[in-house]
Design goal:
Helix content is about 30%, strand content about 15%. The protein is built from 18 helices and 23 strands.
Length: about 750
């Protein structure tokens, strides 16, 4: 990442000085043996140059000749086991300062100035603020990189607590005393997602893991994760370590992924955080990562996967980190595996057992970095961000219109797979050729921002700087940055009554039916792609055509609709056995599309995507919605949100009425596609209807009974009606059938809405 800042030859010369002053030692070199020192440096330099442009998934070509002498390199002042966070940060800063001073001397250039510095958290026991993560997430990096403005003092620079937050963080790091890099790599990926969630305008996020004798640098963009792992006992590793540390200190924000088309401003934000705990007596021993900190369990006593030769640098894929191969950079776009959410806190800590902190809070003022202009448009805030590393990385900003300066619009940025570019263009072209529909929000503009060289801004080309032939060799999707602008509607989370949401689903179904008439299949029905009207009885609309494709007009009429049956007939059918859906063992011939919890059974099983699958996804949106919220937000909160364009509060992870799904429904989002499809299909069987509603009802009642004692039974009735309808019709439900059930429910329970107050103007 920092090759343009620190060349390999400069790092070699700095290492030469470090050998002379004892910062680095080499065991095969005796004091004053200048010739042997030069030989060791030349061998390390040759090795570094030979691997400079190679990746772990590419052939190495001609192997580098083995040196006649094996050298054991070491850093005498590197913190020993257990690694203390403060001592590690002091070591990294000392190396950076020494390397910078040496570079100025070698280059005779006093203009080299540091921009950033390593820092340890002020609070060693609690999550770092403004991570936008749920409260129980373990978001506590061992160290981080902050801009120089975050430090005060002339000689001994001290970090300002106001800057210790995820919106200011340039890099997040994890220290591991063990030689096994896996645990640290998994943990640091979570921190990188925290950075991306707090700073969604970043083109990529950066992380680092430092261990007893290794360092790993990670960069994650929307095509996946790439990294380099180096051994500090190897000459090449020492050279690259110097390049990394000095590069981090010299790098500008663009080198850490900042998008120059997004102007960032600072805002003071007051937040309540747990009070600082008194300093604890330093703990030592094999089961603790840091002295003077909380305990770290789960460190295996042995590490059999470590290479037999610990002096050999190593690398691994991002899914299964290992430590048994030579140092090399890696590039991968494979799917992230299940990540650990284990806490750093010990059993006596306030957050153990997943409990919220009951300690006293203190109010601090933080310096939050927020977008103020996005592509030359005034930005009010962020409406939505996926917070993911790999994938589309969708972010929606609320921007001010150029006309009266009072109208808000939604500006969406996303990184689209190159293979999808033609499909998306065809969909938007077809939409432009038809008259507008009140329940379909069509983007008014689409353009591809260009890279600095005038080409398309892509992950593999602009970020990773790969050549075309290199892109073709990698089994990683290349993604292009795209932007759309459309009118701003109300996100589903800001519903004011259950009926308000049901009307939103009706509108989205009407919009989907219209798309089918013109020959467009949406293929990504989810809660985030349904928006609500600001009118009291208005219907919702369907948005987001990133995954849509053009098909045949009137595709929803290709098959005759299922026969209409009465509710009495459906109830009577409960005693009849259900015929299983056909399963296919043939390989899937097209990528699955959609958001996993809302995917239809057929799509999960690899069937070609049809309009029936989209309609089925509306069912899962309906069910999961009533398990996702504890009733609506207060009236004043909703009114204030409307004025502010429904943007996310700075630093807020979840709105206060959002709640986790029950465990049985969390299983719709985890596991293999086949496992998820089997769980859904099992619940849709007639014999499972009673058990399904029994699973739902206690959770619905606990979430909704505060508003009205009669709301929960009404919602259970709605869910059961819809669930049984899909079961009875073998999942093939047409738009009109679904809409009719929803409309009947609105009519039957119209009086129930009187318990909820309409908060909006208009």
């Amino acid at each position: 990442m920092f090759g343009h800042l620190v060349t390999t030859s400069l790092a070699r010369d700095i290492l030469d000085r470090f050998l002379a002053d004892g910062t680095v030692t080499c065991e095969e070199i005796k004091p004053n043996e200048e010739e042997e020192t030069r030989h060791a440096l030349n061998a390390a330099y040759a090795d570094a140059v030979a691997h400079a442009c190679l990746r772990s998934d590419e052939p190495l070509g001609e192997p580098t000749p083995e040196p006649e002498t094996t050298y054991q390199w070491s850093w005498p002042k590197f913190p020993t086991t257990p690694i203390n966070e403060n001592k590690l940060v002091a070591f990294l800063n000392n190396i950076a300062d020494s390397a910078l001073s040496t570079a100025r001397s070698i280059l005779q250039d006093d203009s080299l100035q540091p921009r950033n510095r390593f820092a340890a958290p002020v609070d060693k026991h609690h999550a770092i603020p403004l991570s936008y993560e749920p409260d129980r997430e373990d978001m506590h990096p061992d160290f981080m990189v902050l801009p120089l403005a975050a430090f005060s003092g002339d000689k001994e620079l001290e970090v300002k607590e106001a800057y210790v937050n995820f919106t200011a963080m340039l890099l997040a790091g994890e220290s591991k005393s063990a030689r096994n890099a896996r645990e640290g790599l998994i943990q640091v990926q979570r921190y990188m997602r925290g950075i991306k969630r707090a700073q969604p305008w970043l083109r990529f996020a950066t992380g680092m893991t430092v261990g007893k004798d290794f360092v790993a640098l990670l960069r994650g963009d929307c095509s996946g994760l790439e990294r380099i792992e180096l051994s500090l006992t190897d000459g090449r590793g020492c050279i690259e370590f110097i390049r990394i540390i000095l590069g981090i200190v010299l790098a500008d924000k663009k080198a850490f992924g900042h998008n120059p088309d997004v102007e960032i401003g600072e805002r003071n934000v007051s937040v309540d955080i747990p009070e600082l705990r008194p300093a604890a007596t330093p703990r030592t021993g094999p089961n603790f990562m840091t002295s003077g900190s909380t305990s770290q369990s789960g460190i295996p006593p042995t590490f059999s996967e470590y290479a037999s030769n610990p002096g050999t640098p190593y690398s691994a894929s991002i899914d299964l980190p290992s430590v048994d191969q030579p140092s090399a950079t890696s590039s991968t776009g494979s799917k992230s595996g299940t990540t650990s959410t284990g806490s750093k806190r010990g059993p006596d800590d306030e957050m153990s057992q997943g409990k919220r902190s009951k300690r006293r809070k203190r109010t601090v003022t933080l310096c939050a970095f927020i977008p103020v202009r996005v592509h030359s448009r005034e930005c009010i805030g962020i409406l939505f961000t996926s917070g993911s590393i790999r994938g589309r990385g969708t972010t929606v900003y609320v921007v001010v219109g150029a006309g009266d300066g009072k109208t808000y619009f939604a500006l969406k940025t996303s990184w689209q797979d190159v293979a999808r570019a033609d499909d998306q263009a065809a969909v938007l072209k077809k939409l432009s050729e038809h008259k507008p529909h009140p329940n379909v929000i069509i983007p008014s503009k689409l353009f591809d921002p260009t890279a600095k060289d005038g080409g398309v801004d892509s992950t593999l080309g602009s970020i990773r700087a790969l050549l075309n032939e290199e892109m073709q060799q990698l089994k990683v999707e290349n993604r292009i940055l795209t932007m759309t602008i459309s009118e701003l509607w109300r996100p589903v989370a800001y519903f004011w009554s259950p009926h308000d949401f049901v009307r939103g689903v009706i509108g989205a179904l009407l919009g989907h039916e219209y798309l089918c008439e013109m020959g467009i299949l949406h293929r990504d029905i989810s809660e985030n792609n349904i928006v609500l009207s600001l009118c009291r009885s208005g219907l919702g609309a369907l948005i987001d055509f990133d995954m849509a494709i053009v098909g045949r007009p009137n595709m929803h009429q290709d098959s005759a609709p299922p026969p209409r049956v009465s509710k009495k007939e459906i109830l009577a059918s409960l005693l009849q056995p259900a015929a299983p859906l056909p399963a296919s063992d043939e390989p899937y011939k097209a990528p699955r599309t959609g958001t996993t919890p809302y995917m239809s059974i057929g799509v999960l099983r690899g069937e070609p995507h049809t309009h029936y699958h989209d309609v089925e996804s509306f069912l899962y949106v309906l069910v999961l919605f009533f398990l996702s919220y504890k009733g609506p937000l207060p009236k004043e909160t909703l009114r204030r949100a409307q004025v502010q364009g429904f943007v996310q509060p700075v630093g807020a992870g979840r709105l206060p009425h959002v709640t986790a799904w029950p465990a049985v429904f969390e299983r719709w989002a985890s596991g293999t596609f086949r496992e998820i499809s089997d769980r859904k299909y099992s619940a849709l069987g007639p014999a499972s209807h009673a058990g399904f509603i029994q699973d739902c009802f206690p959770h619905i009642r606990s979430r909704w009974e505060l508003a009205s004692q009669s709301t929960a039974p009404a919602l259970a009735d709605l869910i059961l009606d819809c669930w049984m309808m899909f079961s009875r019709h073998d999942l093939k439900v047409v738009h009109s059938q679904f809409i009719e059930v929803l409309q009947e429910w609105l009519k039957q329970y119209a009086d129930e809405e009187a318990y909820y107050a309409y908060p909006f103007d208009g």
